[in-house]
Amino acid sequence: MKYFPVFFDLHGKRVLVVGGGDVAARKVALLARAGAEVKVVAPELCESLQYRLANGEIEHEARNFQDGDIESCALIVAGTDDQATNKHVSDLAHANCIPVNVVDQPELCSFIVPSIIDRSPVQVAVSTGGASPVLARLLRARLETLIPAAYGRLAALMNEFRHKVKAKLTDEGKRRRFWEDVAQGHIAELIFAGKEEAARQAMHSAVDAAQVAEDRGEVYLVGAGPGDPDLLTFRALRLLQQADVIVYDRLVSAEILDMARRDADLVYVGKERDKHTLPQEDINLLLARIAKKGKRVLRLKGGDPFIFGRGGEEIETLMQEGVRFQIVPGITAAAGAASYAGIPLTHRNYAQSVTFVTGHLKDGTMNLNWPALAQPHQTLVVYMGLLGLNTLCARLVEHGLAADTPMALVQKATTREQKVLVGTLGSMPELVKQTSIKPPTLIIVGEVVNLHKKLAWFGGAKTVGEE
Ligand SMILES: C[S@@+](CC[C@H](N)C(=O)[O-])C[C@H]1O[C@@H](n2cnc3c(N)ncnc32)[C@H](O)[C@@H]1O
Question: Which residue in 228, 244, 271, 301 is the catalytic one?
Answer without folding.
Answer: 271
